[in-house]
Structure formats: structure tokens, C-alpha cells
Design a protein that fits this description.
The protein is of the alpha/beta class and 243 residues long. It is built from six helices and twelve strands. It is flat.
Amino acid sequence: CRCTKLKTYTNTTSDLEYKIVYKKRKTIGIYMDTYGNFEMRVPVETSRERIQQFLEEKWSWIMQNQKDAKEKLQGAKVRVYEDGESYLYMGHNYPIVITVEPTLSQDTIRLDEVDKVIIIFVKDNEGQAIKALLKRFYYQTAKAIIEERIRYYSKDFKVKPRKMTISNNQKTWGTCNGMRELTFNWRLAMAPMAVIEYIVIHEMCHMVHLNHDRSFWRLVGKHVPDYEEQQSWLSQSLWQMTV
């Protein structure tokens, strides 16, 4: 391949530094490392105009992923509990809208699926109250979804869980003990349904194989052939799964 020096492309909103790698390939590929460094791999005869057109087409994706990469390097998100701050819900970012009503008998939370926002009704605009309300919302959501998924997948297993609880464990997404008692992390409500289903299947497979041997992973793969993609989503998104 033939590599060029680092280049800069200027959009109406910002500048982008990038590297071009010319290769024997048919399509343009874009790659970003964990530091947000951006690289284009293009067919040898690609024109400058086509490269600029491609950058314009992918501009929003590039900017968002660079922003995510830089934030991820800084570690877990620090929350401020203000209007517009976004929280993951089922794999998508939802901004919060805080409504203060001093006469409320109880703080409540409502998901607006139309406008894609989380509406928070509180007696007092205080960070710890909003945090507690959000945690309860995710806890209840995770419980409802996981219970339903366990019922759905139970038909595929000869054994059934004896108990299911939602956990605040910071180190695991789920566990299964020798008594077939399952626990799941409430933060799973922030993940896409495919990820939740993978974790549910993973722990249900432990009812059959308590360790992570080859038989266990064969059983997981039978139910979730793309489980590595779900693992990848969790590892890439953990930094923003905070309240």
C-alpha cells in the first residue's frame, strides 16, 4: 500500500485530521482507534473529490465516534443531573427532562418513546434524588424485561431457574449458582435487547454447565450465534453505562 502524510479536512463545523492508506481494494473503509485517530483506506485510483464526498457523507458518524472515543479514555461518565444530560436506555441515548413540582407527593419518572426523552418529575431539583429515581427506573425495567425473557427461553431448557434477582453488583452482568439462582445487573436496562438476551441465555446455560468449558460455549452459541458481538457492545459501552 502507499500511505500519505496526515491530512486535514475542514467541514463547516470543525476540522478533521486523518490519514489515507491507498490499497488494492474496491471500496472505501474507515477505521478509528481507541484514541479517536481516524484513518481512511481507499482504492488506489480514488479521486480527491470522492474522498471529500465520502467524508461529508460520514461526517456525523465520524464526529460522534471521535467524541465517544475521547470520553471513553476519560473513564466512566461523571453525572451532573441536569436537563439534556443523556442516559442509555435499551441501547439508545435519551436526554433527561427535569420538571420540578414542589406539590408532588412522590417523585416519578416517565419514558417518552415518541420524543425519545426520559421525563423526571421531582419535588426538588436535587442530584441525589434524581440519581435514586433513575436507578429505580432502570432496576424496575431490567426486572420486567429479564423476567419476560427467562419465561420465553425456559422452553428451551430442561431445567428452570429457582429464583431471579436484580443486583447492584459492579463486577458482573449476571451470575448463576449451583442452586440455579440467577442474578442480573440492573444496568442491563441500558443495553440493547440483543445484549440483554445474550446475558440471560449465558446465565441460563450455566444451569446446565456451571463452568465456562467448551460445552458451555457451544450451548451459548446454539442460542446466540453472535454472542461475541454482544460481548463487544458491553465492553465498548461500559464507560457510559452510569447513573
